What does this fold into?
Amino acid sequence: MSNPAPATVSSQRALTDGATKRCPQCHATLEFRSHYPILTVGVMLERTGSETGDRMRYERAWVCRNGRCDYRELLGDA
Ligand SMILES: [Zn+2]
It folds into this structure.
């Protein structure tokens, strides 16, 4: 006999784009982004020869869908 799989696949799976959870701030939906663009404008950039692409980097983040809330939870480098 095979074990019946639970209907709900829950928690702690590897996070993928489009995963959602509840926003702790406004209780709307947070959406997971594995490559959320972070602007680094304002940070002192040293000249390294090529400056292109240095003003933006990507991190894993939860981002609130509620535009008025603008909550985001950065998880670190992608
Ligand atoms: Zn929110």
